[in-house]
Amino acid sequence: ETSLKVTGIDFLKSQNTRQHHTDGYNNKNLVVRRGQPFQVQVSLNRELTAADKLSLRFGIGENPMKNRGSLLSLKPEREDFNGWKISVVKKDGKECLLSVTSSPNAPVGKYNLHVKTGTNIYKPENGVIYLLFNPWCEDDVVYMSNEAQKKEYVLNDTGYIYVGSAYNIYDRPWNFGQFEEFVLDACMYLLDKSKLSLSERRNPANVSRAMSALVNANDDNGVLLGSWSGNYIGGTSPMDWIGSVTILQKYYKTKKPVRYGQCWVFAGVLNTVMRCLGVPSRCVSTFDSAHDTEENLRVDIYLNEKGEKLNISFDSVWNFHVWNDVWMKRTDLPDGFNGWQAIDSTPQEQSQGRFQCGPCPVKAVREGDVYLPYDSKFVYAEVNADRVYWLVKKVNGKDKYFKIGTETQDIGKNISTKAVGQNRREDITWEYKYPEGSREERMSMQRAYSFIRPSGLVPRSGYASTIQTLGGNTQPLVPKETVTKTGLHLKITNTEPLHPGNPLEMAITVKISTPGNWTVDLTGSCQLQYYTGKVQANLGTTKETINLEGPSEMQIPLKIAPDAYMKTLSSVEDEVLILVTAIAEVRETKDKLTQETSMRFEYPPITVQMPETAKLYNDFPCAFIFKNKLNVTLENCKLLVEGLGIFKMTTFDMGDIMPGRIMKSEIICTPTRLGDKKIVAKLISNQIKGISTEKAITIT
């Protein structure tokens, strides 16, 4: 008989990708998930007989070899030693329908498929198959049982990243775009670049750790170069991104780091990469997050006598910090640590010699099991450190440090992520920590303290290291909240909306709950600071002495004129927050208390006008309207818009927008994909960095 030859192969793309939840990928090749069958139709030059030898060969990597496990040769009805199998579904003349099931712990990556018949080898065009993690497969360690969660954490290509400050949290819309053109290829390039061995590629813990290293450019020419310098010439300012797509496409094209990122950009891109590879992933924002350089669970804040914060500390409290949680079973750890794992690609500190962080089990953070890999001490400190305030006074020409207060419940607040299936913030603080003051929290803390040695209470800024002050008394095991004899309490609020160009009108409320006549010295300061806690400008201070007949309270106004801050606001390229710090001292009892609050400016909105539904491939108009309701001209305005599956990232130059002026721009959109889609718009100018909005549309 004539020797058996393959004449063609059909990868049955639309049927397979639908079943594998991969039909969204904008890719000409077949994309499937591991541990789940997919079908291929093989056409032959004659009918298949029992004597014929037919095998499918899957090769991965540069030089696939059987003995290395990188070449799998599969014959129908015989299970391969690596847990893959194929079977004949039906034979129909010269057509043969085969079903292939990969192992649920197969290495993820790109496989080349060849068909061998006797001594003939057939190499199809587009014969590369992408194999991803499979949260729909019970035997895959990334298995997630809840359908709505998979829809959110794996398939949703848009979302929000929560930023601002604990005092006012706001959402920044973000396009993850894991299905867009070249994004999957960029992720495959990163997998190859990671130098993970084949067996390491089986495990999402290794893959997510490697990706946390590769999304930043430090030490490996990864995707994004971080910069907090305030000067972003020669790149894109971190505030100007509205999604991950442009970044990953540019990186894949140039293979050079893209400039510039800050934490929410790193988290947005890492979220895209993990969802793209099939690992359930979410962006997590922590407010008042400690960046503690010594894992000693303490952050020192230094204030001068006017109550202004000084930039002299090695450690800092970020108004917010964003990282990611990825979902998996941790087969490398004792029981009880499956589920969400924190990973962080913002280059903060090295771990095992590289800028990478995690995966750290969120449950280990909650229970205080901070000896578990990876980087659990670091993550624990980010959400559990204490804030210690020091007053820096000149004594005989030398700086002396006086401790004025310890805040033990201030760090790691309002831990937030987007809710499943809804456009709202979900508070997940309870997943990271037990309620403040509860018995479980105390036990968890004692457990953590047994693995982390908190250092004595001495200031440790660069300036302070030479002076020993206040004795080296070490911290008690569970620090107590500072309870004052007079029940002194401070609260900071804004009394008018904080619009750029208007006076900033704020108030410090001093409250005393103990009966009696009390004299309180109050110092208040207002500064502009970056979200990393770095002070950018001093705007003004107030010093008052007030008499209170306890129990009562009094409100002290703090007002800053526009001239004091508008110049700084226009000259920085980052969004800045308003920081108000108050120090109060009761003369009669020497009680001292410090309180600080960060607030963000409030901006007029962008309105989007477009239909609620549209038909596939039918054009529709979309208009963006912005009215400058502020008292200042917004200079160099740019409008950035992007709609996944509707139109590519577009930038409009708007010039200057005077007070009261209305600006309108319009684009024509052509939807190329079905389902619920979103359009994201962002307006940036010299004065304002972060007005963004989004609007949903259903494509039928």
UniProtKB/TrEMBL annotation:
InterPro entries on file: Ig-like_fold, Ig_E-set, Papain-like_cys_pep_sf, Transglutaminase, Transglutaminase-like, Transglutaminase-like_sf, Transglutaminase_animal, Transglutaminase_AS
Cofactor binding remark: Binds 1 Ca(2+) ion per subunit.
SUPFAM superfamilies for this protein: Cysteine proteinases (SSF54001), E set domains (SSF81296), Transglutaminase, two C-terminal domains (SSF49309)
UniProt KW Protein transport keyword: no
Active site: residue positions: C263, H321, D344
All copies of domain Transglutaminase-like, residue ranges: 255-347
UniProt entry keywords in alphabetical sequence: Calcium, Metal-binding, Transferase
One of the Pfam families matching this protein, by short name: Transglut_C
Binding site for Ca(2+): N384, D386, E436, E441
UniProt keyword annotation of Calcium present: yes
Annotated SMART domains: TGc (SM00460)
Co-factor requirement: Ca(2+)
UniProt cross-references to PANTHER family, sorted A to Z: PROTEIN-GLUTAMINE GAMMA-GLUTAMYLTRANSFERASE (PTHR11590), PROTEIN-GLUTAMINE GAMMA-GLUTAMYLTRANSFERASE 4 (PTHR11590:SF70)
Family to which this protein belongs: Belongs to the transglutaminase superfamily. Transglutaminase family.
Listed name of the protein: TGM4 glutamyltransferase
Organism: Rhadina sibilatrix
Taxonomic placement: Eukaryota, Metazoa, Chordata, Craniata, Vertebrata
